[in-house]
Structure formats: structure tokens, C-alpha cells
Design a protein that fits this description.
Chain B: Keywords: Aminoacyl-tRNA synthetase, ATP-binding, Cytoplasm, Ligase, Nucleotide-binding, Protein biosynthesis. Chain B: Its EC number is 6.1.1.14. Chain B: GO terms for molecular function: glycine-tRNA ligase activity. The complex is a heterodimer. Chain A is an alpha+beta fold. Chain A is 42% helix and 21% strand. Chain A starts with 8 loop residues before the first helix and ends in a 5-residue tail after the last helix. In chain B, α20 (594-601) packs across α21. The longest helix of chain B has 26 residues, at 305-330. Chain B is flat.
Chain lengths: 290, 772
């Protein structure tokens, strides 16, 4: 659907910021830690708990070491961006607000086929689940739309609505390019490849080949120990950061292929315990009943 | 009489839930009305992604008045009894009626307005709605008690005739307004009632009927395909799914680069159908066409050009991925892929998938070497004997074929799970087997091996194709047998409704393979084989009694029936019973009368499924004949007399050595040693047989050995024919001979004769289990 005035990658972000800012969302900056998805940002994970209203939008770089392809696959990256909106309680017109954002970035729903296709979301790691859809635009999934029902094993009271846009994918569609590296990053001739291609090459190599697995294993243990200390000392936000670090370290270990099938379940169980434990401590810290 | 319209509008209902939800709505609504005594002449229900609706036809405006009468205590009863009755009925004493010293309460319920009934019924239906998964939303979800619905419920329309039925629940208030198509008519529309609902929606680009949308999709997809010289590969599930994703379906045809057709067609079909919900097309030659049909939900301003372009792009990216996997996977041989199976756990206690593959490979070879699989192979190595055969020149060739078959089966088994670690199967798990078959062919493995890899999961249920190619049969059978014996070995047996490892399905697959290919698989031989383990250690996975184990250790060769005191217990026995049960289920599903199955199974002593079924089949045809029916009647009469007058003779022959076992024949094979046999008794008779009695003895003397021999030679039809000769003598016997003769000798002799009749019949089946 390339048109002469298709948004550049950065303008896509700026347009979404402006739009969701107008809807009352706090426009946050990315969380400064490696996470696998925007949902791990405490602005979603922790803020989706408890009774207080909370509306926020932010870009979150997401790292998925095993998805790295050394910059050789036009669609797969070990580092990419998600655009995340969280609104609690979920507004009655959240679908309409979302569709409004599509119009804002140049998708006319009377030209393009927009569909809400069942896709329930579950993150065993976060002890979280919700019901919703993947939103299709002309057969392509562009957004995950979820009504959170539980987080960290706790019922969401009230329920938050979460939107996760896949920014590169959306931009590729709007700009009509076949490779992520060909995306216009801005209107001054800089491409996504100019910014990130070398990162993909080097980081894929590090993720798959270089990362020192002994250190990674130690880091994981250290995160666990630090997490315990944070819980004991009553700082659940810091505890949650250790859960995030442990989770990413586990993902790196997976990419290095050093975790056996049997060990895998145990590592995942530990990350889950940390994430849930942080949520529980956060609830307690705020005086919220389960 | 008037019509009632109900519409429940919500955010997009998952496509797979819509049809059932529509039925549930009609059912629950009818139930609620029935409770109040209201009955519509018909209920039409409708469903789209954004609404569930129904129209109840010809509702009376009010329910009929009812009068109910309750009987109370006697007037002489203590005061507390009367007080209790008054509390229960909510009446005062002067409202009661006295009849013959007993208090009666008559409660008159006037008719209720239909609108009131509906105002109660609709919220009750909403609250009780059985969604497979439901959720909370919005500000109300501050508490977990808030209303649950499949997705947020947005609006309620309840119009009786043209009158609004006022309903307020959970912050929603019913009204006349609904919404049309999300994009074509985003504004509100006002509904007048049931009479204009469908037309108004249609005018606003919503086709309320699921069936109508399905019909439109099917017809327009066919039309679009035909315009390009293609035809749609029929897929009713996909039509229904697309009808569940659209309120205004518009099928559009797009094409893809024919170069992608080098990828196996199964992959392309799955990419189109599962990932994209597109219809797959074929050209006039029946080959996959390089085109697809997607179903849009709008009448696009540009006629759909942008939608087709977008979908083409998405599909091209997916097919590129698929082609990449196809190329990537073929760079590694299946044998090398198979090595990675060491990293996948099959089951905690059963090792890795590689371990399973090793077991399956050995078992597949064993099945061929034992002559269980392999059409032209000798039944048993020893059965050929040392005798010079007229066609002995062919023997080496046959042996060569058998050896080759065993090698092929083992080879195929070693590779059959290798595709599980390929990229393509990682992406499309449903292509397990199929991809292995393609990869095997791509590296020029023998066709028989490639076919076996492709088809070894088959059959996966009643109605699926059952393999017949010997290599495939060996691998398929070995895979399933290994799964069942392995899980039984670690005591993971199906119980009740729980069958987490799908062992029942595996057993059904084995039964189908055995029947279709007429395989002589003795389950006992199998248990012995899998129990041997690597070192001949029989304690490994099944538990046998000591003497059985000793026999096995001593060599364990020869016919099992020749071995006295064969006992096994624990899981080995459970396994035999499990197969017997599965076979019964399978036969019942195949339409065989269950009493006939029971009649054959009651004999016990059989672990050969083919022979068991041959017996069932012969019995089935026999009881349908006149002779069969009359023999059955005669048998039943004999059995009844024995039961009444000779309880000591009346226990039917159940030769299992182990209580509960249905399989073990005793050593002699047919003995009833404690019973007085008619022929023995005859020698000592002090009286002369009556003619009919003598005739029956003669007939038995002739029929018994014939039937027994026929059974031994597995000519079950002939066994039945032999028994049929008893019919006339039995009838004559009952017509002219008195069993209960005052002379105790005569009586004993005749009872023994009847026991003999019964036992003869039991050579073939336990007729007492047969109905009629």
C-alpha cells in the first residue's frame, strides 16, 4: 500500500504517541532493560494489578535471541520494537480507539480489510492470561489486542486492555517494502538497515556463538539470589527487575543451546516464581487484597 | 400473539464458537420461557461476529392463569403443624379450605404478561450462558462478580411486537438501537421489531444468518475461481470459519508466484488454509493452482485491489518461509536429523524419542522376522520344517525377500520420527510423517521406506486409511505397539476418561492394521518379546509369575498352549484385557451385535485378534440362519434345565487359568474334567436309550469332533455347520424325551447329555451370552 506520503518508521511512532497521548495515556520511554516483550515493562506487568486507573503508551525494544538471523532474513530480528498501549480499566470504546489509531497512521478501513480474529493470550512465565484477538489487516497480523484477566496469578480488578503493535511489520506494510532493512527510518534517506543491520549481525553472533555460557549460568543464579534479597527487604520493583534479568539470561542460554529439555522446565519455573513473587510482593506493598 | 426480537451485541465472538452459541441461545431462551409457561411457535436464531440474535414467533401476550392446590395437616393436628403449613404457603388460616378434616390451601396464580416473563428470562439467559471461555471487562470488573461474556457485551435489543421490553443489567439498558457493519455503517440504527430486523441489518451491510453468509461465500468463491479457470477445493469448515469472521463476506481471488509450487502441496495448502484462512484452488488438471481466495469483510472502495495486494504480500512472505524450510531441511539427511531426537524427551520414564525410535526399529524388524508382517513370508521360520519342498528352489528367494523386508522396515523405523526436528514440521506439526516422506524421497531412499515414513502414523482413527504396504505396516504397527507396551510397562494405563497418551487410539490403530492385513499377531508373543529387554531380563517391564519366567529363560520356544501353568500377572495381563476391550469397542462401532462379541470373548483363551474376529463373523452369519436360531433355542432350553436341575453341571466352561483372564486356555485346550461326560455314563447305563436320545448321542458323536477339528483349523463356518446338524436331534429330543424322569439314572444320564450339547456348542461360542 505504498503511497507517496507513507509514514517513515519514526513518524509512525510519533503519530501513535500523539494519538494515544490525546486519549489520556502517559507517554513513557522504553524500559531500560532487556525484555522479550512490551508486556514485561513494569508499566504493564505491575500496573495492571490493583484498583487504580492507569493509561500508558510506550515503545519497547524487545529482544528474542533465538529469533536472530544474522541480518539475513527480511522478517526476523533478534531485536525489534513493539508499541504498547495499556488502559485500565479497559474503556468501553477501546476497539474504536484502536481503529482510530489505524486511520491516523494511514490505514483506511473501507479500503483495507480489518478483522478481529480470536487469539487468546497466555504467559505462563508471568502467570498471566487474557482473551482477545489478533487484528488482521489484509490477512496480516498487525496488533495483539488483549483484555487481561489475570497477572502474576492474581485476578485483574479491574481488567486492563492491552494493545501491542508490531511496529516493523506495520511500517513495512504501510511503506510497501519486502525487507525490514529497506524501511525508511526517517524522511531524510536513513533506512532501518542503516541503523540496525550491523547490530543484527553482531548480536546474532553473540547470542548464538559468543556469549560465555558459564557467566550466563552464574548471572542467572545471581539474579535469583538478588531477587530473594529484594523480596526480603521489601522492594518488589527491584525484585521484578531481577526477574526480568533472569528471564533474558534464560533466553540467552536457550539461544546458546546449553539447556537440556529437563533443565528447561526448571529454569522456566524459577523465572515464573520470581515474576509471580514480585507481583505478590507488589500487591502486598500496596495493600491490595488478592 | 406476537413476535419477540432479542439481540445481544458484543465485540467479536470467536468464529469457532458462533454456531453452538446460536443454538445455546435458542435452547436456553426456550427453557426459560417454558418455566413460565410461555411457548413460541418457533425460534429462529442468528449469529454474526458481533451479535447473537433470535426471533421467537407467535408468543401469547400473557401466560395462562394456574391454580395449585396443596394438602396440609389434619384439622386435629397440633397447632405447630398448621403454623408450619401457613408459613409454607404464605396464607392465613381463614384462606384455607377444610375438607374431611384436612386443611387445603388453594393458590391461584394469575397469568403474567409476556413482557414481564421476558424481562426476567433474558437476564437469566445471559447470566447462565455456557461460553467455553468467558471474561470480565471495563470499570465493572473492579469485582470478580461482574458479568462474564465471551467478549465485552455492548448492547441489548428486546422488542416484543413493537414494544420495548425494558431490561437493565450490569450497566446495560435494552433499547431499539443496534449497530450495522463496523465500517460501512458505524452509526446506530433503530430497529422496529422482529419484522424489520433482518432487512434493516441487511441495508446496513450485515447478513444476520450464518447459513446465508456461508452460502454466499461458497457461491462467490466458486464463481471467482471459475472466472480464472480454477475450481475451489471444497472445505466446509473453512466456509463456516469465514462466515464467522465476516458480517458482509466478499470473496476475492489473488494469485501467487507459480515458482512456489515446487514446495510440497500439503505445505502450501496448510499455509493457505490454516495460517491465512484462504480457499485452495486447483486447475483443470487437478493440480494445485497458484492462486487463493480470501474472504474480506467489506465492499472495498477500490473493488478490493488493495486487499488482494496486501494478502498476496503476506502469502508471499509465508510461502518464502515455507520454501526456505523446504530447502534448509533437505540440506541435512534424515539420518542426521534423527540424531537430534536424542534431545527430545519422549517420556520422563521412557527416555528420549531416539530411545523410542531404537525400540520401534527392533520391533519392526522382529515383526517381519517372525512372519507377522510380510505377505509372502512364511508364517513362522520353523513352520517350513526341514521337509523337502517341491518349490524349494523358491525358498532362498523368499528368505531373501523377508530379509530385505526386515531391513527396509528397520531402516524406515529408524527414520520415521526424524522429521520432528525439521523446521517445516516445527512450523506445521500436522505435517509430521508427510514431510519425512518427502525428505526421504528427496534423498532417494527406496519408495517403500519413504511411504512407510509418510504413512506410519496411520490409521489415526475409525475411517482413516489403513496402510497395507508391508514396510509401512511393520513400522506403523511397531510404533503403536511400542507406545502401548511402554506405557503399560511403566504403569501408565488409561483409566476411565483419562487417556493422556492416547493409548486407546493406538490400540484401535493396531486392531485396524491387524484386521485389514489379516496379521497373525499373538499378543502373548509380543509381550514376551518386549519383556525380554536387552539381556533377556524379563522383570524389566512386565511382571510374570516365576514359573512362566523360568520357562521363558529356558528358551521359551514353542507353542504357548503346550506349556502348563503359564501365568502372568500385573501389566501383562492388563495389556491383554485392554486389547480385548478395545476390540469389543471397535467391533461394536463396526456394527457387530455386542452379544455376539460377548459370546466369543466369554470363551477366553484367545490372544489372536484375527482368529477371534473370524469366530465372531462366522457366529454372526450363523445366528442369522434358521438352523442357527433353532440351535440357539435348543441350547437355551438345555442350559435352563441344567441351571435348574443340575447346578453342579451348569457352570459354563471358562477355561482361564488366571481369574479374570480372558485369554488363557488351559493345557488340554478343551477340558471339562470334573464333569460327567455323557459318553462315559452311557457305558454304565442300566436302561435303553429312547430313539431321540440315541439319535442325539449319535449326532453329538459326529458333530463334536467335526466342530472341534474345524475350530482347530480355524474353519469357523464349518464348525457352525457341524453344530447345525445338532439342531434337528435336539428338537426331537425335547419333543419326545422327558429329562426329569423319576428314574435317577435316566435323569442323570439325560442331564449329562444336555451338558454335552452345551459343551459342544461352547466349542464355538458361549451361546448363553446371545440375546433372543
Amino acid at each position: 500500500m505504498a503511497t507517496s506520503k507513507a509514514l517513515s518508521f519514526q513518524d509512525l511512532i510519533l503519530t501513535l504517541h500523539a494519538y494515544w497521548g490525546k486519549q489520556g495515556c502517559v507517554i513513557l520511554q522504553p524500559y531500560d532493560m532487556e525484555v522479550g516483550a512490551g508486556t514485561f515493562h513494569p508499566a504493564t506487568t505491575l500496573r495492571s494489578l490493583g484498583p487504580d486507573a492507569w493509561n500508558a503508551a510506550y515503545v519497547q525494544p524487545s529482544r528474542r535471541p533465538t529469533d536472530g538471523r544474522y541480518g539475513e532474513n527480511p522478517n526476523r530480528l533478534q531485536h525489534y520494537y513493539q508499541y504498547q498501549v495499556i488502559m485500565k480499566p479497559s474503556p468501553a470504546n477501546l476497539q474504536e480507539l484502536y481503529l482510530g489509531s489505524l486511520v491516523e497512521i494511514g490505514i483506511d478501513p473501507l479500503v483495507h480489510d480489518i478483522r478481529f480474529v480470536e487469539d487468546d493470550w497466555e504467559s505462563p512465565t508471568l502467570g498471566a492470561w487474557g482473551l482477545g484477538w489478533e487484528v488482521w489487516c489484509d490477512g496480516m497480523e498487525v496488533t495483539q489486542f488483549t483484555y487481561f484477566q489475570q497477572m502474576g496469578g492474581f485476578d485483574c480488578k479491574p481488567v486492563a486492555g492491552e494493545l501491542t503493535y508490531g511496529l516493523e511489520r506495520l511500517a513495512m506494510y504501510i511503506q510497501g517494502v519486502d525487507s525490514v532493512y529497506d524501511l525508511k527510518f526517517n524522511d531524510a534517506g536513513v533506512t532501518y538497515g542503516d541503523v540496525f543491520l550491523e547490530n543484527e549481525r553482531q548480536m546474532s553472533k553473540w547470542n548464538f556463538e559468543v556469549a560465555d555460557t558459564d557467566k550466563l549460568l552464574r548471572w542467572f543464579k545471581d539474579c535469583r539470589a538478588e531477587y530473594d534479597q529484594c523480596i526480603d527487604r521489601g522492594v518488589p520493583l527491584a525484585a521484578f527487575e531481577q526477574a526480568i534479568k533472569a528471564s533474558h539470561t534464560f533466553n540467552l542460554l536457550q539461544a546458546r543451546g546449553v539447556i537440556s529439555v529437563q533443565e528447561r522446565a526448571s529454569y522456566m519455573g524459577q523465572v515464573r516464581d520470581m515474576a509471580r513473587g514480585s507481583c505478590e510482593a507488589w500487591m502486598k506493598h500496596n495493600g491490595w487484597a488478592a | 400473539m406476537t413476535d419477540f426480537l432479542l439481540e445481544l451485541r458484543c465485540e467479536e465472538i470467536p468464529a469457532r464458537m458462533q454456531v453452538k452459541a446460536s443454538d445455546d441461545l435458542a435452547r436456553l431462551f426456550a427453557d426459560e420461557l417454558a418455566k413460565a409457561g410461555l411457548k413460541p411457535s418457533a425460534i429462529d436464531s442468528f449469529v454474526t461476529p458481533r451479535r447473537l440474535a433470535l426471533i421467537a414467533r407467535d408468543l401469547p401476550l400473557e401466560t395462562a392463569a394456574v391454580s395449585e392446590e396443596f394438602k396440609g395437616p389434619r384439622t386435629s393436628a397440633p397447632a405447630q403443624a398448621l403454623d408450619g403449613f401457613l408459613r409454607k404457603t404464605g396464607l392465613t388460616q381463614d384462606q384455607l379450605e377444610e375438607r374431611d378434616g384436612v386443611w387445603f390451601a388453594v393458590v391461584n396464580k394469575p397469568g403474567r404478561a409476556a413482557a414481564d416473563v421476558l424481562a426476567q428470562a433474558v437476564p437469566a439467559v445471559i447470566r447462565a450462558f455456557p461460553w467455553p471461555k468467558s471474561m470480565r471487562w471495563g470499570a465493572a470488573s473492579q469485582t470478580t462478580e461482574s458479568l462474564r461474556w465471551v467478549r465485552p457485551l455492548k448492547g441489548i435489543v428486546t422488542i416484543l411486537g413493537e414494544q420495548l421490553v425494558d431490561i437493565e443489567m450490569e450497566g446495560l439498558r435494552s433499547g431499539y438501537a443496534t449497530l450495522g457493519h463496523r465500517f460501512h455503517h458505524p452509526g446506530e440504527i433503530t430497529i422496529g421489531g422482529a419484522h424489520d430486523y433482518l432487512e434493516k441489518l441487511r441495508a446496513c451491510h450485515v447478513i444476520a444468518s450464518h447459513q446465508e453468509r456461508q452460502a454466499i461465500i461458497a457461491a462467490k468463491a466458486d464463481e471467482a475461481a471459475a472466472a480464472h479457470g480454477y475450481s475451489v477445493i471444497e472445505d466446509k469448515g473453512l466456509v463456516a470459519e469465514n462466515a464467522g469472521l465476516t458480517e458482509w463476506p466478499v470473496p476475492l481471488l489473488g494469485d501467487f508466484d507459480p515458482a512456489f509450487l515446487e514446495v510440497p502441496p500439503e505445505v502450501i495448502q496448510l499455509t493457505l488454509r490454516i495460517n491465512q484462512k484462504y480457499f485452495v484452488l486447483r486447475d483443470t488438471d487437478g493440480n494445485l493452482a497458484p492462486a487463493f481466495i480470501c474472504t474480506a469483510n467489506i465492499e472495498a472502495k477500490d473493488g478490493g485491489a488493495a486487499i488482494i495486494a496486501g494478502n498476496r504480500k503476506v502469502l508471499a512472505a509465508r510461502l518464502s518461509d515455507a520454501r526456505f524450510f523446504w530447502e534448509q531441511d533437505r540440506k541435512t539427511s534424515l539420518a542426521d536429523h534423527a540424531k537430534k531426537l536424542e534431545r527430545i524427551t519422549f517420556h520422563e520414564k521412557l527416555g528420549t524419542v531416539a530411545d523410542k525410535v531404537e525400540r520401534v526399529a527392533k520391533l519392526a524388524r522382529w515383526l517381519v522376522e517372525e512372519g507377522i508382517v510380510g505377505a509372502s513370508a512364511p508364517a513362522k521360520a520353523g513352520a517350513q520344517g526341514d521337509e523337502a519342498q517341491p518349490n524349494s528352489g523358491l525358498l532362498p528367494l523368499q528368505e531373501h525377500c523377508g530379509a530385505e523386508l526386515a531391513t527396509l522396515a528397520e531402516q524406515a523405523a529408524r527414520l520415521c520420527k526424524a522429521d520432528l526436528v525439521t523446521e517445516m514440521v516445527g512450523e506445521f506439526p500436522e505435517l509430521q510423517g508427510v514431510m519425512g516422506g518427502y525428505y526421504a524421497r528427496a534423498e532417494d531412499l527406496p519408495d517403500a521406506v519413504a511411504d512407510a515414513i509418510r504413512d506410519h502414523y496411520k490409521p489415526v482413527g475409525q475411517g482413516d486409511d489403513v496402510p497395507t504396504a508391508p514396510v509401512t505396516v511393520a513400522v506403523s504397527l511397531a510404533d503403536k505397539l511400542d507406545t502401548i507396551t511402554s506405557f503399560f510397562g511403566i504403569d501408565e494405563k488409561p483409566t476411565g476418561s483419562k487417556d493422556p497418551f492416547a493409548l486407546r487410539r493406538a490400540a484401535l490403530g493396531i486392531i485396524q492394521l491387524v484386521i485389514k492385513n489379516d496379521l497373525r499377531l499373538r499378543l502373548l508373543d509380543l509381550i514376551i518379546y518386549v519383556s525380554r529387554g536387552n539381556e533377556g531380563d524379563f522383570t524389566q517391564r512386565f511382571v510374570f509369575e516365576d514359573n512362566f519366567r523360568d520357562w521363558l529363560k529356558a528358551g521359551g520356544e514353542g507353542d504357548l498352549a503346550a506349556v502348563n501353568g503359564i501365568l502372568l500377572r500385573g501389566n501383562g495381563l492388563a495389556l491383554l484385557d485392554f486389547f480385548a476391550d478395545r476390540l469389543k469397542v471397535q467391533q461394536k462401532e463396526a456394527g457387530v451385535r455386542h452379544d455376539l462379541i460377548d459370546a466369543v470373548f466369554a470363551l477366553g483363551g484367545e490372544d489372536d485378534l484375527v482368529r477371534l474376529l473370524a469366530r465372531v463373523k462366522a457366529l454372526q452369519s450363523f445366528v442369522a440362519t434358521d438352523d442357527g436360531a433353532n440351535l440357539l433355542a435348543g441350547y437355551k432350553r438345555a442350559a435352563n434345565i441344567l441351571k435348574k436341575d443340575a447346578p453342579d453341571l451348569s457352570s459354563a466352561r471358562h477355561p482361564g487359568l488366571e481369574p479374570g483372564s480372558r485369554f488363557f486356555d488351559d493345557a488340554e485346550g478343551s477340558g471339562t474334567p470334573d464333569q460327567v461326560r455323557g459318553d462315559d455314563a452311557a457305558d454304565a447305563l442300566s436302561y435303553t436309550h429312547e430313539p431321540a436320545e440315541a439319535d442325539l448321542i449319535t449326532a453329538l458323536d459326529a458333530a463334536e469332533p467335526r466342530a472341534a477339528q474345524a475350530v482347530a483349523e480355524e474353519r469357523f463356518e464349518d464348525a457352525m455347520t457341524a453344530l447345525a446338524t445338532l439342531r434337528a436331534p435336539i428338537d426331537a429330543f425335547f419333543d419326545s424325551v422327558t429329562v426329569n424322569d423319576p428314574d435317577p439314572d435316566k435323569r442323570a444320564s439325560r442331564l449329562a447329555l444336555l451338558a454335552r450339547v452345551r459343551d459342544a456348542v461352547h466349542n464355538v461360542a458361549d451361546f448363553s451370552k446371545i440375546a433372543g
